[in-house]
Amino acid sequence: MKYEEVFCDIEKPLNLKTAQIESSRCYYCYDAPCITACPTGIDIPSFVRKISNGNVKGAALDILSANVMGGTCARACPVETLCQEACVREKSEKKPVAIGQLQRFATDEYFKTGEQAFTRAPTNGIKIAVVGAGPAGLSCAHHLARLGYDITIFESRAKAGGLNEFGLAPYKLTNEFAQQEVNYILSIGGITIEYGKSLGKEITLDDLRGKFSAVFLGVGLGGNNSLGIPGEESKMVIDATRMIEKIRQTKDLSKIPVPKNVIVIGGGNTSVDIAIQMKKLGSEFVTIAYRRGRTEMGATHHEQELALTHGVQLLNWVKPVKIEADSMQFEYTQVESGKLLGTGKMITLKAEAIYKAIGQTLVSSEKVSLKNGKISVNEKFETSLSGVYAGGDCTGVGEDLTVTAVQHGKLAARSIHEKLGARKHG
């Protein structure tokens, strides 16, 4: 098996000719709904028009100025429920402008030049700590570095990138793109990363608050929810995020065991990611089992169709009951009076591997206040502790997406600058 072909781009990237043809379909709306639908507020009509005019560099600068991880978001964002869903052509023709593909084209072409779009201001001597080198942390660090702050990122892993590096399917981010983007962000200067440093272990908030003028928490969600059923302790039950990480970080994929029968529990995009990956690796029967219907699944319609195209079976209206030596039992469900109830009818599926994709939990928050199990922040992304900010999945603000985390980091950086800049000049 040629794994580089198995995990290649699902959609062929655009070239200049096809990008210009596609960009010509845009109406360049004055009050463009696609901008509002983008969590980072990219001026989409502006960058699309520039592609149409051959100004690819200008298009990339439009994108990166609003979203420094515009390259990853072009690949991994559920554009079909964000910018492209809001596209006027989607409303009238059911065929939106391919904004995601155009965004990827512009950023990819710009990165090939090796240029740096941003200039770092002279250092102001103020030190900021960022915990977590994922999308939120890197975005916050980059924006503060541009303003002249000296940033130290504390990362628990041996590599930066967060879920972009460890949690997204390899067919979404090919050719080590996550690390290319990290290197681009760090190349602005003023950002140092210390690896192997976990909050609550090697570092504490008390220590960071004593050494730095502000702290940003972009710790993500490191824990995984439990099924709470008999047999869950079986060795064949694995967290989907852990398996995706293993696939992403394994150089020789032929060394990964490929079970014949696979069950994935959950209805989100992560469940689709791991299901498709196992099919690509060679698993014969892969089933996504979800307790409600397809319309209630967290995975977008596009992702669901992608799974079906790859031969994944979607089994809806079933809930896990128990796990046995080589199988898993489910009970069919139905909704009565607004409540999800079991019907008493059972089904058993064979399994050599069961992957849980039923959501993640916050592992460590130390002394900050929580809300619904996640870090509580105000509109400026301040936590309950003075000088401590947070953003991304760990806060529960908005959807758990790379683009949302990037925006949180950007807005938190502005809040930090607003406070520290005023203190410096006050």
* First and last CA, distance: 64 Å
Can you name the CATH architecture of the largest domain? 3-Layer(bba) Sandwich
Trace the largest sheet across and list its strands: 3-2-1-4-17
How many beta-strand segments? 17
CATH third-tier fold name of the largest domain: FAD/NAD(P)-binding domain
Provide the domain count. 3
* Radius of gyration over all CA atoms, rounded: 22 Å
Tally of individual helices: 17
Overall spatial form? globular
Assembly context of the chains: single chain
What amount of the residues lies in strands? Answer: 15-25%
The CATH class designation of the largest domain is Alpha Beta
Biggest sheet features: 5 strands, parallel
Helix content: 25-40%
SS-derived structural category: alpha/beta
The named CATH superfamily of the largest domain: FAD/NAD(P)-binding domain
Mean pLDDT: 94
- Which blocks of ≥5 consecutive residues have pLDDT under 50? none
Note down, in words, how this protein is organized:
The chain starts with a helix and ends with a helix. The protein has 426 residues and is α/β, with parallel strands linked by helices. It has 17 helices and 17 strands. A five-stranded parallel β-sheet has the order 3-2-1-4-17, sandwiched between helices. The chain has three domains: 111 residues, Orthogonal Bundle (Fumarate Reductase Iron-sulfur Protein, Chain B, domain 2); 160 residues, FAD/NAD(P)-binding domain (3-Layer(bba) Sandwich); 135 residues, 3-Layer(bba) Sandwich (FAD/NAD(P)-binding domain).
